[in-house]
Amino acid sequence: MKKGQTLWTRDELILAVNLYCKLPFGKLHRLNPDVINLANLLGRTSGAVAYKLVNFASLDPSLKARGIKGATNASNLDKEIWKEFIENWDDLPFESERLLAKTENTTIEKLNNISEGDLLKEGKSREQLVKVRVNQNFFRSTILASYNNTCCITGLQQPELLIAGHIKPWSIDEKNRLNPQNGIAINALHDRAFESGLITITTDFKVRVSPLLFKKKESNSIM
Asked: CA triplet 99, 164, 157: central angle to 5 degrees?
C-alpha cells in the first residue's frame, strides 16, 4: 500500500461490489458519474474506486469465460467479500442496498422507488416485501448491466422494454433465483415465448423454436 492510502473496509467493499454488479464492464472507469458518486460517498478518488471495480472484474467468472481480464491486484479481503457476495445472492444484495441507503442518508424504500402502495399486500411482513422488491430490482440491474442493456435475441437496446428473465424458472430453482448466472436480458415478447416453452436458448447461445409454432403457422395457412 502506498503512503497516504487507507485500507478499504468491509462496508466500502460491499458498496463497491454493489456498484460493480450494476455497471457494464466498459463503464468501470473514473469518469463514470456513478463511480464518481460512490467515490464522493466514500471520501475516495474516483480513480481508486474504478481500480477497485476492475479488481473485482478479475474475479468475475462470466468475464473470464469471455476472455476478459481485470486488474491483478485483488486483495485477500477483495476476494473474501466477492466470494461472500456470489455465494449469497439472497442476502448480500439486500445488505448492500441497505448500506447504500444509509450512506446516502435515505431509506431503502426511496432508494429502490418502492411506494407504500407496493407494500400493502397480505401474507408477508413489510420487511419481507421490501427485501423481495429490493432483490428483484438488484437482479434486474445486474442482468441488464451484464447484457449492456441489450436483448440477447433481437439486439433491442431499450431498457424499458427489456425483462431480466430466468434461465431456470423462478419456481423450480429457489437457490439460483437471484444468481445473475441464471439470468438473461430479453424483450417482453420473447420472454413470454421463452417462459411458455415456445423458444429455448442453448448453452452455445442458439435460439431453437418449438415445433408447436410451426404447426400453428401451418394450421392458419390451411384455414
From this structure: 105
Residue 164 CA to residue 167 CA, distance in Å, equals: 10
Q: How far apart are CA 50 and CA 60, in angstroms?
A: 15
Delimit the domains of the chain by residue range: 1-146, 148-223
Q: Could you tell me the sign of the dihedral formed by the alpha carbons of 98, 140, 58, 92, in that order? A: positive
Main-chain phi, psi angles of 158, to 5 degrees: -120, 100
| Model confidence pLDDT, tens digit, residues 129-167 | 899 899 999 999 999 999 999 999 999 999 999 999 988
Q: How far apart are CA 50 and CA 29, in angstroms?
A: 5
Residue with cell 439460483: 176
% of residues, the chain, pLDDT over 90: 59
3-class DSSP state of 203: coil
121 vs 92: CA distance, rounded Å: 24
Q: Which residues contact 197 (CB under 8 A, 6 or more apart)?
A: 210
Crossing angle of the two packed helices 46-57 and 33-42, in degrees rounded to 10: 110
Predicted TM-score (pTM) above 0.70:
yes
Cell numbers at 198, concatenated: 415456445
Decide if 195 contacts 165 (C-beta within 8 A): yes
Contact 133, 152 (CB under 8 A): no
Instruction: Indicate the DSSP class of residue 50.
Output: H
Where do we find the cell 427489456? 162
Sign (positive/negative) of CA torsion 122, 173, 205, 133? positive
- CB contact at 8 A, 183 and 165: yes
